[in-house]
Each structure stands twice: as C-alpha cells, then as structure tokens.
Amino acid sequence: MTNSPEDPRQELGNFSGVGEMKAIVSGVEEALGEKAAAIAMLSAGRQRGKELAEKLNLVDKDDSVSLETITEKARKALGKEGTRLCVIDKIIQDGDVYKVYTRETFDSVGESQGSDRQSTFTMGAIQGFLEAFLDQRLKGTQIESLLQGDSYDLFEYTIMGEINRNVRPELKE
C-alpha cells in the first residue's frame, strides 16, 4: 500500500500499542528528569483533553449540561468508545472541587503494585477536557492510586477561575 497525506498509516491505522506510548514517557523522563517530565506529561494531557472537547463540540457547556452528562461525555471520549485512555467510573462535585474516579489509566500500564507512578498524562487529559467543557481553569491533584492499593486512581480538580477566551492567542497558556 502507498501512503498518502490524508492517511499516512494505511496498513497500521491510527492505533499504536500502549507499550510504545509508555516508552515515550520513559524516554521523556530519562531526558528531562522525573519532575520536568511530569510537568510536560500533564501539559500534553491537558492539551489533548481540550482538543477532544473541542472536536466533540463540548466547549463552554457548563450552564446547560448536567454533571451526569459531563460524566457520560468524558467516559465516551476518554474510555473504551474513544481514546481508551482510562475508564471513568464517576465524577462528583463537592463545592469548587470535581472528583474523578478512574481505573485502567494509561499511565499505570505495566507498573507493578506499589509503584509510585503518578497518572500525570491521564490527569492532564481529564483536566483539559473538563476545563474546556466548564470554561473554568482547574488545578488537578492525584489523591489516590490503584498502584498504592486504593480503590481508584482518584483525581481532584479545584476551580481556579474562569478562562478568558478573549486573550490574544500568543498570550494564552
């Protein structure tokens, strides 16, 4: 088969093994160090989550859509029917905090029980998706880990403020 600009992977398609993606993460960690790599993975995840929300036309929907709908859209976009990044079991809101209960996160693949691996890319992707959907800037923290014996990979996202979409593109994050 020949490659074309529209479909450069005619034989392999748009999928790649999760092991290959984990190798990228490990290589970035080796090149940049663990902390810088975590920042890079979180940022890359946020960008990917925002792109998914935009692609699905889900930007700025917080006033008209229930938390149940947000949860379902996130499940589809990031789960088995979408990117297969993770399984989202539930999203709950407690004041200015959104709690996202996940499992089978991309970041945990191949990790042994007891590993201190954080799910930075997954946490970032969910954060970016929620930020685009809610039009709110969030700060994410992983507070539980399946690798540490918890019941979920649990992420908490605290509302930091509204996103100003009228800023010149070169001044945005």
Oligomeric organization of the protein chains = single chain
Number of discrete helical segments: 4
Tell me, briefly, the overall form.
globular
Helix content: 25-40%
Contiguous low-pLDDT stretches (5 residues minimum) are none
Please give the number of β-strands: 4
Main sheet summary: 4 strands, antiparallel
**SSE class:** alpha+beta
Report how far the terminal alpha carbons are from each other. Answer: 41 Å
Give the overall average pLDDT.
87
Strand portion: 15-25%
What order do the helices and strands follow? HHHEEHEE
Spatial strand sequence of the major β-sheet: 1-2-4-3
From the alpha-carbon coordinates, what is the Rg to the nearest angstrom?
Answer: 17 Å
Give a concise summary.
The chain has 173 residues and is an alpha+beta fold.
Observed structural traits:
173 residues; alpha+beta; 4 strands; globular
How would you characterize this protein structure?
- By secondary structure, the chain is α+β, with helices and mostly antiparallel strands.
- It has 4 helices and 4 strands; from the N terminus they run αααββαββ.
- The protein has helices at 18-32, 34-55, 67-78, 120-134, and strands spanning 87-94, 97-103, 136-144, 153-162.
- A 4-stranded antiparallel beta sheet has the order 1-2-4-3, with helices on one face.
- The mean pLDDT is 87.
